[in-house]
Design a protein that fits this description.
Length: 365
C-alpha cells in the first residue's frame, strides 16, 4: 500500500531582524539597513534588509566591508529581546495549526500540516493562511515553500523571496528538480560545487547518473545521501522541538574565515540562536558542542558537559568560545562552524530540587 504524500511547509521570515527594525522605525523603511555591531569595533552583520542586499551586504559580512559596499548603510544594534518576542508570536501561530513544528532558528521552521487544526487538505491553503496571519499579527512578511518533503520545501521557500509562496506538488517534483543547479543539494558548498562542476556535474539531476565510485571520490560519505536528494527522496520527519534530544546550528561559508575576531563573532551568533531555541522549546542542555571544519575538510568537534543544565545565552557563549580556543581556528582557515547543545531535558523537570537551571538562578549566583 502506498502511503499518502506528506504535506510539509518551510516558513522563513523575510530579513527578520532588519524587517522588525524597519517596522518599528518608519524612518528606516525603504533604506538599506544592517543589524549588527559598529564597523570601528570589528562588528559583523547579523541581518541585512533587502535594500542593503542590493549592494552585496549580507549576514556574516564584516560591518566595515558592508559600509564600503554601501556608504549610506543604516546600522542598527541588535535587540534580541525584541526579536525573541516577535519570534514567539510567530511560533505560537505555527503551533495553533499543528504540533509538528521543527524550529531551525528564531525566524524559520518546518511544519508538517498533513493533519492540521484548520482541516485544510492542501498545504498551499495552509501556507497562504499562515502568511496572512503572520502579516496581520506582526506586520511582517514571510516566505513559504510547500512540498512532500523537507528538502524541497526549504528550497521552495527561497524561490520567490520576499513574501513568496512556492508549491512543489508531487506531480511537479521532477520538473522542479530539473531546474536546480548542483549547489542546491544540502551539504554542497562553494568548494564542493566547484569540484562537482569540474567533473562535469552542473545540474542537480546530473548526480543521478554518476557512478557510485566517482561520486564517493568527489564528496565522500555524502554520496549516497546526495544521490537520494537528487531523486527528490527525503524521508526525514518533521521533529517537534519538544521531542528532540539535541540541537545544533552550523554554517558553511562561501569564503574561508581567517580572522579570529570574525570567527568568534560567528560563534557568538550561533550560541545566541541556540539559546533562543532552548527557551522556545522549554528545554535546557547540559552539554555544549563546537564543530569546526578547516579549509582542507578536516573536521574537529569539542564538547563541554556540566552537571547543571542551562538555557542561558551568556553561559553557552562562554563555553563555546572556550571550546573554540581548543582548536586551530584563527591559525588555519575555517570553512564551517557549528554550535550545538545536547543532554536536553524539560525546564519544568529539574534534575533535583537543589540544582536550579542556570536561567533561573538569582543574579550573581
Amino acid at each position: 500500500m502506498t502511503l499518502p504524500a506528506r504535506r510539509i511547509i518551510h516558513v522563513d521570515m523575510d530579513a527578520f531582524y532588519a524587517s522588525v527594525e524597519q517596522r518599528d522605525r518608519p524612518e528606516l523603511r525603504g533604506l538599506p539597513v544592517a543589524v549588527g555591531g559598529r564597523p570601528e569595533g570589528r562588528g559583523v552583520v547579523a541581518a541585512a534588509s533587502y535594500e542593503a542586499r542590493e549592494f552585496g551586504v549580507r549576514s556574516a559580512l564584516s560591518m566595515a566591508k558592508a559600509v564600503r559596499l554601501c556608504p549610506e548603510l543604516k546600522i542598527v544594534p541588535p535587540d534580541f529581546h525584541k526579536y525573541r518576542a516577535v519570534s514567539q508570536q510567530v511560533f505560537d501561530l505555527f503551533r495553533s495549526v499543528t504540533p509538528a513544528v521543527e524550529p531551525l532558528s528564531l525566524d524559520e521552521a518546518y511544519l508538517d500540516v498533513t493533519e492540521n487544526a484548520w482541516g485544510e487538505p492542501l498545504a498551499t491553503t495552509v501556507a497562504k493562511r499562515l502568511k496572512a496571519r503572520i502579516l496581520e499579527e506582526t506586520g511582517l512578511t514571510a516566505s513559504a515553500g510547500a512540498a512532500p518533503n523537507k528538502f524541497l520545501a526549504k528550497i521552495a521557500s527561497a524561490w520567490r523571496k520576499p513574501d513568496g509562496l512556492t508549491v512543489v506538488a508531487p506531480e511537479r517534483m521532477e520538473s522542479f528538480l530539473q531546474k536546480l543547479a548542483v549547489d542546491a543539494l544540502w551539504g554542497v558548498g562553494p568548494v564542493t560545487a566547484r569540484r562537482l562542476r569540474a567533473a562535469g556535474i552542473e545540474q542537480l539531476v546530473d548526480v543521478r547518473t554518476v557512478d557510485d565510485e566517482t561520486l564517493h571520490g568527489l564528496v565522500g560519505r555524502q554520496a549516497d545521501w546526495l544521490k537520494r536528494l537528487a531523486q527528490g527522496i527525503d524521508e526525514r520527519p518533521v521533529v517537534s522541538d519538544r521531542e528532540r534530544k539535541s540541537r545544533s546550528s552550523e554554517h558553511t561559508y562561501a569564503e574561508d574565515l581567517r580572522e579570529i575576531d570574525r570567527i568568534r563573532a560567528e560563534i557568538d551568533r550561533m550560541a545566541a540562536g541556540t539559546a533562543d531555541w532552548l527557551q522556545q522549546a522549554e528545554v535546557a542542555a547540559r552539554t555544549v558542542t563546537l564543530k569546526v571544519r578547516y579549509h582542507d575538510f578536516k573536521t574537529v568537534t569539542r564538547s563541554d558537559t556540566r552537571p547543571v543544565a542551562t538555557v542561558d545565552a551568556a553561559d553557552i557563549t562562554r563555553r563555546a568560545r572556550a571550546l573554540l580556543d581548543r582548536t586551530d581556528a584563527g591559525r588555519r582557515p575555517v570553512r564551517l562552524l557549528g554550535v550545538g547543545v545536547h543532554g536536553l531535558r524539560p525546564r519544568s523537570e529539574p534534575e533535583n530540587a537543589r540544582e536550579p537551571l542556570l536561567w533561573d538562578a538569582a543574579p550573581g549566583a
